[in-house]
Amino acid sequence: MSTPHVVVVMGVAGTGKTTIGPLLAAALGVPYAEGDDFHPPANIAKMSAGTPLDDADRWPWLDAIGQWAHGRAGLGGVVSSSALKRAYRDRLRREAPGAVFLHLTGDRPLIEERMAGRKGHFMPAALLDSQFATLQPLEDDEAGVAVDVAGTPEEITERAVAALRRLDS
């Protein structure tokens, strides 16, 4: 990419944001920040108990991610965030107007299978339905690309890098 973008890796739980994010950051030569690390303890406790977050829970989390992204403007970076609703992405863009989104997409059975294989993650597979119900895919006027999560992490990352490069064409 000609100018280092700040890329927000988004998607429902289990799409591989935490796996693809660092691989993408390494491929682009920029730092990675794990979006889950920006959650306050109350949010993690709520999700661990199987309770979906509401918007009041998400705003401070999104603001913290947006502030990190703002600090990386012009330098590039990759951060993960589910960013499921347009309003959430708008909130991130308010802090970091140049951010672009990488939407990791996949069919529910594949994502559920991957979630079942995860160890030690606070997001239970039981919340997957609420994630899909909340998801609003990227709209045409949003800077970003969608990449399917079928295949190996390396294949997904290669597709993501190619798709992000096309944004600069």
Structure, described:
- The chain has helices at 17-28, 41-48, 55-71, 86-95, 108-116, 128-134, 153-167, and strands at residues 6-10, 32-33, 77-80, 100-105, 144-148.
- It is of the alpha/beta class and 169 residues long.
- Strands 2-3-1-4-5 form a 5-stranded parallel beta sheet, with helices on both faces.
- Helix 1 packs across helix 7 and helix 3 (55-71) runs parallel beside helix 4.
- The termini are close together.
Architecture blueprint of SSEs:
Elements: E1 6-10, H1 17-28, E2 32-33, H2 41-48, H3 55-71, E3 77-80, H4 86-95, E4 100-105, H5 108-116, H6 128-134, E5 144-148, H7 153-167
Parallel strand pairs: 1-3, 1-4, 2-3, 4-5
Helix pairs in contact: 1-7, 3-4
Q: What is the chain-wise order of helices and strands? A: EHEHHEHEHHEH
Number of beta-strand segments: 5
What is the share of helical residues?
40-55%
Number of helices: 7
Find the structural class using helix and strand composition: alpha/beta
Q: Strand-residue fraction?
A: 5-15%
- The whole-angstrom Rg is 15 Å
- Shape verdict: globular
- Outline the biggest β-sheet: 5 strands, parallel
Distance between the termini: 9 Å
Low-confidence stretches are none
Mean of pLDDT: 90
The neighbouring-strand order within the major sheet is 2-3-1-4-5
Which characteristics define this entry?
single chain, 169 residues, alpha/beta, 5-stranded parallel beta sheet, 46% helix, globular
